[in-house]
Design a protein that fits this description.
The protein is an all-alpha fold. Helices cover 54% and strands 2% of the residues. Strand 1 and strand 2 form a beta hairpin. The structure holds heme C (3 copies). The site of one heme C has 22 residues, from helix 5, helix 8 and helix 10.
Length: 232
C-alpha cells in the first residue's frame, strides 16, 4: 500500500504489529514477561517515590527550599536533638499511606510549574507568598488531625508529668476539647509568616479571644516555640 511508506506509514505498521495476536510466543511466556515487567515498573515507581522523599531531595533540589525553609529548619529540634531522631521534610509533609502519598506527589508536580515561572524565586517573593503557603499546610494538617505529626507523637504516649507545666495544662485541655497539634504548634519547623496574627484562628478563619483576656497562660499559636535557636 502506497500510504505505508514514509514515517507515518512506518508508525501505522508498527501499531498493527503491536496488536497482532502472537503466533510465536506462548501465552505463558507472554504472561511471565508481563508480570516481570509489571514488577519492574512497580519497583521503579516506588524508587521514584522514595527518592523524592529524602531530605537531600526536598532541601537541595531547588533554591526556593534551600534558602528559606531548609535553613530555618536546621536550627530546630526536629533537625537535631538529644536523642538523634530526625524528622525530615517528608515526615511532616508527605503522608505515609500510599494513596494519600500518590495524591501529594501528583500535587507536587504542579509545584514544578511555580518553580519554572519563578513564583517564589527570591526571598522577597517567598515571604510575600508565605502566608498562603503556610495556610495551605495548616488547613491540610487540621483536616487530617495532624496525621503526619501523629506518626511520631501521640497524646497517649506522652509522659505528661515530665512535661513543662504549661504543656501539661494545654495538652489536657487539647484532649478534652478534641484539639489537634497544629491548632497550637504553628511555626515549629520554619519561621512564621511576617504578618502572622496570634489572635487569629487560621483554620477556622475567625478572630479568637486573646488568651491574655481569658486568663490563659498565653496564646497557643506562638507557644510551640517557633524555631528553637541553635545551641552554641
Ligand atoms: C519523624 C518523627 C516526627 C514527626 C513526624 C514530628 N515530630 Fe515533633 N518531635 C520529634 C522528635 C524526635 C522531637 C524531639 C524530642 C526530643 O528529643 O526532645 C520532637 C519534638 C517536638 C516538639 C517539642 C519542641 C521543643 O521545644 O522541645 C514539638 C512541640 C513537636 N515535636 C511537635 C510536632 C508537630 C506539631 C509535628 C507535626 C507538624 C511533629 N512534631 C512531627 C519527632 C517528630
Ligand atoms: C491547646 C494547645 C496545644 C495542643 C492542641 C497541643 N499542644 Fe503541645 N504544647 C502546647 C504548649 C503551650 C506547650 C508548651 C510550650 C512551651 O512551654 O514553650 C506544648 C509543648 C509540647 C511539647 C514539648 C513538651 C515539653 O515539655 O518539652 C511537645 C512534644 C508537644 N507539645 C507536642 C504536641 C503534639 C504532638 C500535639 C498533638 C498530638 C500537641 N502538642 C498538641 C500546646 C498544645
Ligand atoms: C516537624 C515538622 C516539619 C518538618 C520536619 C518540615 N516542615 Fe515544612 N512546615 C511544617 C508546618 C507545620 C508548616 C506550616 C507553617 C508553619 O506552621 O510554620 C510548614 C510549612 C512549610 C512550607 C510553607 C511555607 C512556610 O514557611 O509556611 C514549606 C515550603 C515547607 N514547609 C517546606 C519544608 C521543607 C523543604 C522541609 C525540609 C527541609 C520542611 N518543610 C520540614 C512542618 C514541618
Amino acid at each position: 500500500m502506497a500510504d505505508e511508506v514514509g514515517p507515518t506509514g512506518g508508525i501505522r505498521r508498527a501499531w498493527r504489529w503491536l496488536w497482532r495476536p502472537s503466533g510465536r510466543w506462548s501465552v505463558g511466556a507472554l504472561l511471565i514477561v508481563g508480570v516481570l515487567g509489571g514488577i519492574l515498573a512497580w519497583g521503579g515507581f516506588h524508587t521514584a517515590m522514595d527518592a523524592t522523599n529524602t531530605l537531600e531531595f526536598c532541601a537541595n533540589t531547588c533554591h526556593e527550599m534551600r534558602d528559606n525553609v531548609y535553613v530555618e529548619y536546621q536550627s530546630t529540634v526536629h533537625y537535631t536533638n538529644r536523642t538523634g531522631v530526625r524528622a525530615v521534610c517528608s515526615d511532616c509533609h508527605v503522608p505515609r499511606e500510599w494513596s494519600h502519598k500518590v495524591l501529594r506527589k501528583v500535587k507536587a508536580t504542579g509545584e514544578l510549574w511555580g518553580h519554572i515561572i519563578g513564583e517564589i524565586d527570591t526571598k522577597e517573593k517567598f515571604e510575600k507568598h508565605r502566608m498562603t503557603l503556610a495556610q495551605n499546610e495548616w488547613r491540610q494538617m487540621k483536616a487530617t488531625d495532624s496525621r503526619e505529626c501523629r506518626n511520631c507523637h501521640a497524646f497517649t504516649a506522652m509522659e505528661k508529668a515530665k512535661q513543662r507545666p504549661r504543656a501539661q495544662q494545654r495538652h489536657a485541655e487539647a484532649q478534652q476539647k478534641g484539639m489537634t497539634c497544629i491548632d497550637c504548634h504553628k511555626g515549629i519547623a520554619h519561621l512564621l509568616p511576617q504578618d502572622f496574627d496570634e489572635d487569629f484562628d487560621y483554620t477556622a478563619g475567625v478572630k479568637v479571644t486573646p488568651y491574655a483576656a481569658v486568663g490563659q497562660p498565653g496564646p497557643p499559636a506562638a507557644s510551640g516555640g517557633g524555631p528553637i535557636p541553635a545551641k552554641p
